[in-house]
Design goal:
Porin, 2 domains, 16-stranded antiparallel barrel, 12% helix
Length: 388
């Protein structure tokens, strides 16, 4: 039998042999105390979580700034380059032409507030405006301020990348909407500075757009103290059908340093400038069609006309035939009428990218602000590339 002293010595030795060692080498081994880390390691809590595990739900909910920026800012752009051959009064001309190189940005500031900026590298800054919607996720009422496409005519608000003809808009729209052929107005690319109130009702069947505009060319302050007012109304009774009526009333100031040969308005003269239109569009799987009647008044000169333009799929993927008939009389009293016909093909090779080839006939033309009678024949081939 071991005596009591021997038994106590053995138990003490065993206890000392099983003491944990502290991480701190300067602390005497076997002092019987654990560091906090050693305590955790020695007695792990099955309910305890690492920092990563604790923060995981928080990080999952935290916004990714790169994703947030991508969601708020959208970049768009397109380019249209063409080869154009023309025969006018027996004289031929031909040229390659980069018609448009446009880039624009849409920035969503909040759910109801946004900003847009557009620049054409072949000309000037086109648009800069801000929108504010009064109803979240609804299109009842939005206010727009800045420089933007005005709402006159069915065609003018549409992008050139969606139009059928290489010349884009009809002769009447090009003249009455300020896209370049009205030399008294100047070239505004169908855009103006102003304020707009627009929206939709009845699940999109009705749409309205009321605008107050400077009435002068873009990127300039107003050249008179009177503003133009414009109203656009749309009715979409069934899918694919859109009926549009627009009207504009105001005054212009002749930008020319001489009397206009088309209207008789004198140099620098302020004159009545009113416009009206009614038309519509129909779109289904076998045809896309739009047409319009237009009328304008510049001083005492009355202009009016109409057009019908469309495209028909040819059964081969991406291939369509294109056609248009267009008549416009620049001054009814002087009989400055012009007939225009377009026939051609287009091939959509990728989303909004296409190649177009068209024949164009005109019975007369507007050259330098003058009416020039005589047949014109042309061939136009255009490449369009667009990204969203």
């Amino acid at each position: 039998m071991l005596n009591k002293k021997t038994m106590m010595a053995v138990l003490c030795a065993l206890a000392i042999a099983h003491q944990p060692v502290r991480a701190d080498d300067n602390t005497p081994k076997g002092d019987g105390e654990f560091t906090p880390q050693e305590e955790t390691d020695f007695h792990p809590d099955p309910n305890d979580k690492t920092v990563r595990e604790v923060l995981a739900p928080v990080m999952a909910k935290a916004p990714d700034w790169t994703k947030d920026v991508a969601d708020r800012i959208k970049l768009h752009g397109y380019a249209q380059g063409a080869y154009i051959f023309n025969n006018a009064n027996g004289e031929n001309s031909n040229s390659f032409n980069m018609k448009r190189v446009i880039f624009w940005v849409d920035a969503r500031i909040t759910e109801r507030w946004s900003f847009s900026f557009m620049h054409d590298f072949m000309s000037v800054v086109q648009e800069y405006y801000t929108d504010f919607s009064f109803f979240k996720n609804k299109k009842y009422l939005t206010v727009r301020f800045g420089q933007f496409k005005h709402g006159y005519s069915y065609e003018n608000p549409l992008s050139p990348t969606s139009m059928e003809t290489v010349d884009v808009y009809s002769e009447g729209v090009t003249y009455l909407a300020g896209c370049g052929s009205d030399r008294m107005f100047g070239t505004s690319y169908g855009r103006e500075m102003g304020l707009a109130l627009f929206g939709e009702a009845a699940n999109g069947k009705f749409a309205y757009n009321f605008q107050v505009l400077n009435g002068c060319i873009i990127n300039k302050i107003d050249n008179n103290n009177q503003k133009d007012v414009l109203l656009r109304l749309e009715y979409r009774p069934v899918k694919g059908l859109n009926i549009v009526a627009t009207g504009r009333m105001g005054r212009g100031q002749n930008m020319l340093d001489h009397e206009s040969e088309l209207t008789g308005v004198g140099a620098g003269e302020r004159y009545i400038r009113n416009r009206y239109s009614v038309g519509g569009a129909y779109d289904c799987k076998w045809i896309r069609l739009h047409g319009e009647y237009l009328e304008g008044k510049d001083g005492t000169a009355i202009s009016r006309g109409g057009y019908l333009t469309g495209s028909v799929p040819l059964g081969l993927k991406g291939f369509e035939s294109v056609f248009s008939y267009d008549y416009f009389n620049y001054n009814v009293d002087r009989d400055y009428g012009q007939h225009k016909a377009v026939f051609g093909l287009q091939y959509w090779f990728f989303k909004k990218c296409r190649v177009q080839a068209q024949y164009v006939y005109k019975s007369a033309s507007i050259n330098g602000g003058s009416y020039v009678p005589g047949a014109n024949h042309g061939v136009q081939v255009q490449l369009q590339v667009r990204f969203n």
